[in-house]
Amino acid sequence: MDTGWFKSSRSSGGSDNCVEVRITTDEVGVRDSKERSGPAFAFPLADWSAFLSEAKAGRFDLPA
């Protein structure tokens, strides 16, 4: 059964051009909403948390 996946509440409008996320006790899964039966990335919680911290700090921002 394919449960627990969600996308951002800002991803409205009926578009499937989004990523979906599933959080478990061990990892965070990320997949393409257009390919739900396709592969998903799985990240350990500590790695995902570090990624989010860096993203929030602007470490991945492209120069203007």
Rounded to an integer in angstroms, the radius of gyration calculated over CA atoms is: 13 Å
Distance between the termini: 44 Å
Q: SSE string, helix = H, strand = E?
A: EEEH
Strand order of the largest sheet: 1-2-3
Shape: globular
- Strand elements, count: 3
Structure annotation, total helices: 1
What is the strand content?
25-35%
The helix/strand class is alpha+beta
Report the mean per-residue pLDDT as an integer: 89
Helix percentage: 10-25%
Low-confidence stretches: none
Q: What this model shows, in words?
A:
This is DUF397 domain-containing protein. Residues 4-56 form the DUF397 domain. The chain has a domain at 19-56. By secondary structure, the protein is an alpha+beta fold. It has a three-stranded antiparallel sheet with strand order 1-2-3. The model has no long low-confidence stretch (mean pLDDT 89). It has one helix at residues 45-56, and strands spanning 19-23, 27-32, 40-44. It contains one helix and three strands.
Throw out a few tags for this protein.
globular; alpha+beta; 64 residues; DUF397; 3-stranded antiparallel β-sheet; DUF397 domain-containing protein; 3 strands; single chain
What's the structural blueprint in terms of helices and strands?
Layout: E1 19-23, E2 27-32, E3 40-44, H1 45-56
Antiparallel strand pairs: 1-2, 2-3
Task: Give a quick rundown of the structure.
With 64 residues, the protein is of the alpha+beta class.
